[in-house]
């Protein structure tokens, strides 16, 4: 693996940029504002707190594990080999769907207003993403540093301008279905999961991965809440509000949203590749995937890139941008909740070994598990059946794959690095 390690700021930029807060705002937030109006501000704060609970679990686990694999590694060593495999399998779904949701959503918003051919811009964006991934982590991180700052600036400028404008009084209303609004609000801060799979690429990973995770959740959630509060003063059509009230920088906002979608995809392609690499090292994937080239897991990166690019392009082409966004968005929340449950159980089992000294960790893991289960059940109730069918099919496929590996005798736990 490369001796070049990411600094604190580089790791933050990749994680925060991978969360793509401004892009998330104009995708998840556009629907959330239409459903909840002014309540979306409260929903975003509540959603951020709920996500923060799971983020704190990652903080505790990251103090113990610094190798590639993130959620997969936590489950593999703390729970069982099979649960590790299934967790890694589900993370692959989460990585593809979150990155794909951001890209499809940002392209949908942009093409709706600029009247650009969706297939053409999708192809160009995916081509640019592939170029950055192939060039390597260093180039992707430089891009992330620039775009993450651009997204923060976009949110701050929009919020300040809207708050300084002459405005009507703020009318707080509770929508008919407040929990659905919270569900969309949760879709924004859950993008922090791209960092812990690449821990081995980060300096002092045990010390900083967890801290960055918490900072990214809080910063992304609070900035989102700020913009929603400012926007709700003018109505529920977020894009129209930005176009009419912040029109002088609207091209910059479009630029930030599109590049945020691109960066979200890149960050999760990289995270996906590290999961594949870690699973391959433990004989859960073909050994060729773990081979290093150019002093990096190039094969894993290439496979992740191909899967992401081909699958997303054909989805957008055949089912359309909006449907792709809705389906992938629903799958993102479900897969995120399951891998979070796996992380919660990992921390719980570790803490049980020294229960008297780790009561806070047990409380944290238990609380996070209960909250995640409640949100999971509600999410499934709100999803269209096809989303749930796809999700359960993916889980079943993961267990079948685990059975096949066990029968073939090809799985086994290697020594921890």
Automatic annotation (TrEMBL):
Membrane-crossing segments per the record: 12-33, 39-62, 83-110, 116-134, 146-164, 176-196, 208-230, 250-277, 298-319, 325-350, 362-380, 386-404
The UniProt entry lists membrane topology as: Multi-pass membrane protein
Compartments in which it is found: Cell membrane
> Which sequence ranges form a coiled-coil region, renumbered to this chain?
none
Q: Which UniProt keywords apply?
A: Cell membrane, Membrane, Transmembrane, Transmembrane helix
UniProt protein name:
Amino acid permease
Q: What is the lineage of its organism?
A: Archaea, Thermoproteota, Thermoprotei, Sulfolobales, Sulfolobaceae
Determine if Transmembrane is one of this entry's keywords. yes
Q: Which InterPro entries match?
A: AA/rel_permease1, APC_superfamily
Tell me the GO molecular function terms. transmembrane transporter activity
Query: What is a single cellular component term in the Gene Ontology annotation?
Result: plasma membrane
